[in-house]
TrEMBL record:
This is Mitochondrial Rho GTPase. Belongs to the mitochondrial Rho GTPase family. It comes from Saimiri boliviensis boliviensis. It is found in: Mitochondrion outer membrane. Pfam families: EF_assoc_1, EF_assoc_2, Ras. It is an enzyme of class 3 (hydrolase). Coiled coil: none annotated. Residues 314-349 form the EF-hand domain.
Length: 701
């Protein structure tokens, strides 16, 4: 804890300037005080009133511009503009001392009648002309100070011999920049609840091992980040001895407890060192009302269009240490009590019960380490401002010694650039899951979290989530797949269309289910570059014919999409994650998917025609070798003809057509000699096998 000098609070955390107003009865020396401060000597001739004086920031102790105003007459507007009021009296004039109470009464009346005056405006009593008496007026003033808690302090001074002149205005400036009112209650002689709450949060953030005490390393770190200077070992021990002397449970296991921490700050305030407490409070983001400032919670972060936000490596390291700090039983999961302890530095509980159905949990429903990171990744992607706020509550910028929480965020580049470069730097991919109600979308979301149907049935209706996020490995790279359940509607909004990949889900046991998927695809995605995958959900049930003009398989073939993927979460163990790997891959390489569709559009007709020509050529090759033209069904020609037209060979032909048409062929493949060499080789093998069959049949004849 601070025992010596340190840097003052940052100017950004303080007021831009300070306005000091001097009031009091005539001839008590208000103007003389101002003139003596400016000229550093007592003026021989004192004007009726001094002009407003501005002291530059570089010559004031707190580095803040200070304006000093001499009050005269009934200029009540000056009271509303002031940051601190100095009530001046003459220590040798009992009448002026008695008038202090009257002056304060008039001020209180004005304060009550107008909204321009800050109710916490500090007041300072100034006893001038102390050079004319041999005694102090403090005994007379003390009852007034006890009566009015707004009075910060009383300073006796002399404008004539310059006694305490600089100190007077320093205390006035200090009363504005480091007010006592928000921190301390003089009547009860203890800190106010808001101050205790703020300091408790600061203690919990500084207690990095979460053992309930601040050890020497934590105290030194705290000292360095707040005051930019470490404490010597002896100074640390002296601080602990002061605490031990006054309270029994202020030090435990050579560490400072929360009670000891609060006691030290109470001691600072009681001894007039409230600037120490204010330095700590402002370093941790608090304003004069002991609220966290918007500048601290929401630092500036520019996000261009078509860009997303992700946590960077340093943020994940911080969150990992935060998780480890609160995982007291080391089971790699946060119990409800451990999670509650983590959120004690928040003004509210940020996560609801739906989070447990958004990320991975253990068998007891507790959020795992992976689930913890996933939830932070989700918040960063969907609402980065909220993520910045949450990191602010956890003290990210302080513990990592960064300028702000914005340093934890990576803004990805424009998606158009990813498409142009045919590679992406993103780690989080959004998949919109679309389908009719009760088609199995929730099952798909929960399957991403490794939950089968049995576990899904235990989820309460009011705890369901429209999001699910988990890691997926693609070509050895760990990526986050974010699934968003889109509610059924006739038309999707623009926000519901924006994503990296689309998952269209239909129920194989519901004949009306596929029609919705087909309609949504044609309305929004048929001409877009967003890759789409159709999921045939509930594949463990009996499949019925869909009431649509063509089957789902033919629909996919027609629109150059991968065939429908059978999926079920009614499994003994965790459902298969194959579809999630496929969705993530499509999201990572959307240009390949688009190019596939384009190449299929361009070459689809030619490929069908070429296959038909090959088939006709093979049939002709057989027939050219045969001279018999009868229909006896016993000769070689008739046997070959019947074989070529048989159901078996037709089935083989259809399978070849399907395999070739659905093959993942890119535009580069169509231009590759290797591809066409393989196709020619396959056709040759087919022809040779056919000719061998013909020779065998001929021998039998």
């Amino acid at each position: 804890m601070r025992t010596g000098g340190g840097r003052p609070p940052r100017a950004a955390d303080m007021k831009k300037d300070v306005r000091i107003l001097l009031v009091g009865e005539p001839r008590v020396g208000k103007t003389s005080l101002i003139m003596s401060l400016v000229s550093e000597e007592f003026p021989e001739e004192v004007p009726p009133r001094a002009e407003e004086i501005t002291i530059p920031a570089d010559v004031t102790p707190e580095r803040v511009p200070t304006h000093i105003v001499d009050y005269s007459g009934n200029e009540y507007s000056l009271v509303g503009e002031a940051n601190v009021i100095c009530i001046v009296y003459a220590v040798n004039n009992k009448h002026s001392i008695d008038k202090v109470g009257v002056t304060f009464f008039h001020y209180s009346l004005f304060q009550w009648s107008t909204s321009k005056v800050d109710p916490q405006l500090p007041l300072i009593l100034v006893g001038n002309k102390s050079d004319l008496v041999e005694y102090s007026s403090m005994e007379t003033i003390l009852p007034i100070m006890n009566q009015y808690t707004e009075i910060e302090t009383c300073v006796e001074c002399s404008a004539k011999n310059l006694k305490n002149i600089s100190e007077l205005f320093y205390y006035a400036q200090k009363a504005v920049l480091h007010p006592t009112g928000p921190l301390y209650c003089p009547e009860e002689k203890e800190m106010k609840p808001a101050c205790i709450k703020a300091l408790t949060r600061i203690f919990k953030i500084s207690d990095q091992d979460n053992d309930g005490t601040l050890n020497d390393a934590e105290l030194n770190f705290f000292q360095r980040i707040c005051f930019n200077t470490p404490l010597a070992p002896q100074a640390l021990e002296d601080v602990k001895n002061v605490v031990r002397k006054h309270i029994s449970d202020g030090v435990a296991d050579s560490g400072l407890t929360l009670k000891g921490f609060l006691f030290l700050h109470t001691l600072f305030i009681q001894r007039g060192r409230h600037e120490t407490t204010w330095t700590v409070l402002r370093r941790f983001g608090y304003d004069d009302d002991l609220d966290l400032t918007p500048e601290y919670l929401f630092p500036l972060l520019k996000i261009p269009p078509d860009c997303t936000t992700e946590l960077n490596h340093h943020a994940y390291l911080f969150l990992q240490s935060t998780f480890d700090k609160h995982d007291l039983d080391r089971d790699c999961a946060l119990s409800p009590d451990e999670l509650k302890d983590l959120f004690k530095v928040f003004p509210y509980i940020p996560w609801g019960p739906d989070v447990n159905n958004t990320v991975c949990t253990n068998e007891r429903g507790w959020i795992t380490y992976q689930g913890f990171l996933s939830q932070w990744t989700l918040t960063t992607y969907l609402d980065v401002q909220r993520c910045l706020e949450y990191l602010g509550y956890l003290g990210y910028s302080i513990l990592t010694e960064q300028e702000s929480q914005a340093s934890a965020i990576t803004v990805t580049r424009d998606k158009k650039i990813d498409l142009q470069k045919k590679q992406t730097q993103r780690n989080v991919f959004r998949c919109n899951v679309i389908g009719m109600k009760n088609c199995g979308k929730s099952g798909v979301l929960q399957a991403l979290l490794g939950r089968n149907l049995m576990r899904q049935k235990k989820i309460r209706e009011d705890h369901k989530s429209y999001y699910a996020i988990n890691t997926v490995y693609v070509y050895g790279q760990e990526k986050y797949l974010l699934l968003h359940d889109i509610s059924e509607s006739e038309f999707l909004t623009e926000a519901e269309i924006i994503c990296d990949v689309v998952c269209l889900v239909y129920d194989v046991s519901n004949p009306k289910s596929f029609e919705y998927c087909a309609r949504i695809f044609k309305q929004h995605f048929m001409d877009s570059r967003i890759p789409c995958l159709i999921i045939a959900a509930k594949s463990d049930l009996h499949e019925v014919k869909q009431e649509y003009s063509i089957s789902p398989t033919d629909f996919c073939r027609k629109h150059k999409m991968p065939p429908p993927q059978a999926f079920t979460c009614n499994t003994a163990d965790a459902p298969s994650k194959d579809i999630f790997v496929k969705l993530t891959t499509m999201a990572m390489y959307p240009e390949d998917h688009y190019r596939d569709r384009l190449s299929r559009d361009m070459g689809h007709t030619d490929r069908i025609e070429n296959l038909r020509k090959i088939w006709v050529f093979l049939k002709t090759a057989f027939h050219a070798r045969l001279r018999c033209m009868c229909t006896c069904n016993r000769c070689t020609f008739c046997i070959c003809q019947n074989f070529l037209n048989s159901d078996l060979l037709q089935s083989v032909k259809n399978k070849i057509f399907t395999a070739v048409l659905n093959r993942h062929v890119t535009q580069a493949d169509l231009k590759s000699s290797t591809f066409w060499l393989r196709a020619s080789f396959g056709a040759t093998v087919f022809a040779v096998l056919g000719f061998a069959m013909y020779k065998a049949l001929l021998k039998q004849r």
